[in-house]
Automatic annotation (TrEMBL), chains A, B:
Cofactors that this protein relies on: pyridoxal 5'-phosphate
Protein name (database record): Aminotransferase
GO process annotations (BP): amino acid metabolic process
Keywords on record: Aminotransferase, Pyridoxal phosphate, Transferase
Taxonomic classification: Bacteria, Bacillati, Actinomycetota, Actinomycetes, Propionibacteriales
PANTHER family in UniProt: ASPARTATE AMINOTRANSFERASE (PTHR46383)
Domain Aminotransferase class I/classII large: 23-361
């Protein structure tokens, strides 16, 4: 089962059991629905027809405008909608139909999806500080090696901005990747679900390799409606689009019609949507940077925050002191001893011995819609008592963790 | 692409182009949303969290009650929700993970889904007048043959009541199927999406083989909300349920949360839902029987209508007269010459030369919500001018088809 969704469910069980858990395990965005967005869902509640597999004409038009405003001119005919980017990514793997290169570290589901599709995933490390894009030089070598060995790599997945590292690959790296993809005839699947939560410029590979890049995004991260399940893909060729629509028609038929109507409104980006996305971005940035400071303050190594609500600290400098063998044990310790939930690097493709863990800060904004709305509006969200309390608690836990582990080590020795 | 969804889209294009098309190609239910059901979607519009992969606790409880009231005692823990029964059926094929026997004739997507999942589908004919359940004797032979040849059949799909034939397999046949499945250790996947649109008793294989039968259903047919995309599965074992949830977590995460809330209301079956489903069933039965009479009246062969809004007439008695080689040509002729859309038997796994075609009557209830509501309320919907006009037009077309084709044959000879 997906590590993030499993963590969500465990958290909910512990919360219902009355436990106090500081939940930093998953990136579900803990913010309320924008009222105007909710109203558009409500207005479309009577829509009960399947509609086109690729999505309604109004939705595809809105998505085309959304991308066109971001430097990617798009024809509505090139847009395909699905019940989340997750099913779109899965169907794209089936459509591309060969082995697929995935970055390391990597989002929890790419490799699992490839396996379900009966395909091999080929892990390729990213460059330091540039998560989400397999190092183009290593990509080239890995694909050539796989082909020599009789494999059939046909695609490469990139995450821009990146989950789990919260970084953004440099434009030069993206361009190199595009060149290698062209040279080796690979389809690039660019997962850009976090494109509106970037604190530095993002350049899509669709700029450099428009003829072979699929871009996916949705409303899950920018507008906090992950539970509504809607994603959109921008297809580079009629051939791939036709394949994707064929697969979609057999796997999910269409996307919930009332949600499509609301998404068409959102992707057209009226002023209140732009304002809400900007407010969310400010909130995420302020909180994620404060939490990054906490990790840095106790001596964990981490790359500068450039996007998303994710941090990917490395406790390698504390290995001797911690007395754990890897990230699984480290997150287990944090969870059971301190009630702090984070995910181990192993969930993102790291080796067992690595001490990288992933922290997500998007659930720190409050327990109620009132608290969460206040967080969105606050000039400085860090002064809100519930957010301050979480950050203080994390500081206390990490400080204590390093101290106590140290003691344990001494007792054992 | 799915034959039914392709037909839907073609119809919509022709309708927008101003063409008059008598649309009998697909089983989308042309009825408005029950107002109370719409209100429950509206009330849940603020729900934006993913929630559990398997579905919310209230939804699973309601689904368990729904099945328990139908003679299948169900624990809410055994229910898994998905964005339609289509993705559930696909994920179930992956979860069962072996070749799968499908009935012939068969719904358009089972074999296509098996192929996408990298599995082989093994077609087995149904008994006359008992669509949806592969003849148990032939099933046994086909599975043994496949195993001898090194294949790995592990599941069998049944459709109860059946699409495309509008019939229901007899309880004795279902019991025989259950026995064969037990003997050969096959999982039975029982697609019961039409279980509330039956005009004769339906017995689920889950009665005879509860230890190995998965049942799926949803709100698409009984409450006409196909475009909302929600299905539920009832799993027989913890092992299969865990596998299904794991696959669901990687392919679609969860089902639109507002839709889940509305479905929880509907599956609890308050009086107004029961009344609406009963009214729909009455309407479907009246209209589908009238259309069956039209086909019978021109001499097509068809089995007595027992369920659904489907008919599966065979024009074999008119083969000489029609001058077509098979159902593809026959439906093409009906579409281009007369603007009547139906699907060829080939879409349901029939051989090319067969003259079976499938007619669906669920779009005859009107063009507007007002007409459709009137159809639901009418003591005799056949007297409504728009329904009468469609049935009269079909009578005229079929009569003319047989007459004209006859003339053409004479001209050619």
């Amino acid at each position: 089962m997906s590590a993030t969704l499993a963590a969500d469910e465990e958290f909910e069980r512990r919360r219902l059991a009355g436990e106090q858990v500081l939940f930093l395990a998953t990136g579900e965005i803990g913010l309320p629905v924008l009222p105007e967005l909710r109203e558009h869902l409500i207005a479309a509640a009577g829509r009960n027809a399947y509609g086109p597999v690729a999505g309604s004409a109004e939705l595809r038009l809105a998505a085309a405008g959304y991308w066109s405003r971001r430097g990617l001119p798009t024809d509505p005919a090139d847009v395909v909608c699905g019940p989340g980017t997750k099913p779109l990514l899965f169907a794209l793997m089936l459509a591309v139909g060969g082995d697929v290169v995935v970055p390391v570290p990597t989002w929890v589901s790419y490799a699992a999806q490839a396996q379900l599709a009966g395909l091999r995933s080929i892990p390729v490390r990213t460059r330091p500080g540039e998560g989400g894009v397999p190092d183009p030089t290593e990509l080239r070598a890995a694909v050539l090696t796989a082909r020599k060995a009789g494999g059939n790599p046909r695609g490469v997945v990139v995450t821009l901005p990146d989950n789990p590292t919260g970084t953004i690959a440099k434009p030069e790296t993206v361009r190199e990747l595009a060149d290698v993809a062209r040279e080796l005839d690979l389809v690039i699947i660019s997962d850009e679900i976090y494109c509106d939560l970037a604190y530095a410029p993002v350049v899509s590979p669709a700029i450099y390799a428009p003829e072979r890049t699929v871009v996916t995004t949705g409303l899950t991260k920018n507008l906090a409606v992950g539970g509504w399940r809607l994603g959109v893909a921008r297809l580079p060729t009629a051939e791939l689009r036709t394949k994707l629509i064929g697969i979609a028609s057999q796997v999910w038929s269409s996307t919930a019609a009332p949600v499509q109507a609301a998404a068409a409104y959102a992707l057209a980006e009226p002023p209140e949507v732009i304002r809400r996305v900007a407010a969310s971005r400010r909130l995420h940035e302020r909180v994620v940077r404060a939490v990054a400071d906490v990790f840095a303050g106790v001596g964990a190594e981490l790359d500068p925050v450039q996007a998303t609500c994710y941090l990917y600290p490395d406790f390698e400098p504390h290995r001797g002191q911690l007395g754990v063998t890897g990230s699984d044990e480290l997150t287990q310790l944090l969870s059971t001893r301190y009630g702090v939930a984070m995910l181990p690097g192993t969930a993102f493709g790291e080796p067992q011995h690595s001490l990288r863990i992933r922290a997500a800060t998007s659930r720190l904004y409050g327990e109620t819609d009132a608290e969460r709305s206040a967080a969105l509006l606050a000039p400085d969200p860090l002064t809100l008592p519930w957010i301050k309390a979480s950050i203080d608690r994390l500081t206390e836990v990490l400080t204590q963790l390093l101290k106590e582990s140290n003691v344990h080590r001494h007792l054992r020795s």
